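Input/output pair, single chain:
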Amino acid sequence: MKKIKFLVFVLLVTSITLISCESENINQLNIMGKWISTDKNDTLNFVDNNNFYKNGDNFNYRLDGDLIEVKYNGKLFVLVNPTKHRYSLDDNVLIIDFSNEICYGFDLQKVTYIKK
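Output:
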């Protein structure tokens, strides 16, 4: 009986992990491309699985569940630590909440972007 419970537990954990990874992979594919903020002040261009450009400056990023980790990697060589922010991605609408922590190059606010 204990072996069956353990096997069910392992299958459950594996299933949850696979579903989470699949969702992250879908978001990784859907985030690629150009995004323009609704106030037209910012343009983000996600060029690969690690880099995006904001108005010409390079940033590194990593998706982790409902968080996006952002780190400035541009031409000013400013030493800044990466920051994590909640995001949501639904079809052609990307919302990133920068209000929780100062992120170099972004205002302390929630920003809505529309895919171009």
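The helical segments are 2-31. Residues 10-23 have pLDDT under 50 and may be disordered.
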